[in-house]
Amino acid sequence: MQTIKQSGLVHGILHVLLLSMSAHITRELSMAPGGEFRAAHKASVEVEQCRLILGDRPIQITLQRALASMTFFQKLKFFYHILISHNSKITQEDVEKCKQKDLLEQLLAEMAGDFPKLSKIFVDERDAYMAHALHTLLLRQTESKREAWSRTNCAWQPLRVVAVVGIGHMPGIEARWGDDINILPLVEIPPQPLSSRIIGGTIRLAFWGTVGYCTYRFGRAIYTRISPKF
């Protein structure tokens, strides 16, 4: 409920569904997704003078941009796809296949058929965002280290950066490496289409109207029972 209050009904429901899907994957594989990132965090704690930096775009922005790119009926279809995914079985063979880049590209192509902009938002935009974050980090930290090194007599030691990303993002990050990327459009939340706002407002109005009517009928029934009869 806290997520729904903070992010809105539709965004909150999507967030809850994604968490539920993650829990389903955990049950199927007997391990939680994202183990490589937990291992990276553990290693960063064990290495002296190692800084851990989160370089991916915040998930809230990604979800909001994804929802804003879909029509009302596409959102319903997307929610339906997530719901039925809870019944799918994941085998060890499926896990091994998902390690292949070609299969990932095929899955993204299939997803783009039903949701044309979704693959771009979840993959391409994040590739650009992470490439920019890594490149900016290297430039700024190297300049800072050179400035500090110039005041010492020590031998120069290059800056070392280890990036841990999903295998599906590696080709995109490599392709965008060194590009002049403007990330402002990537973090902008576009307004919802007028049709989605109208349909959403109608549904909310109908919902609260139904709640109000039921409350009125319930209160009237109680009043009729307890009121004195003359």
UniProtKB/TrEMBL annotation:
It comes from the Eukaryota. It holds the Pfam family TraB_PrgY_gumN. Residues 1-28 form the signal peptide. Keywords: Signal. This is TraB domain-containing protein. Transmembrane segments: none annotated. InterPro entries: TraB/PrgY/GumN_fam (IPR002816), TraB_PrgY-like (IPR046345). The keyword Glycosyltransferase does not apply.
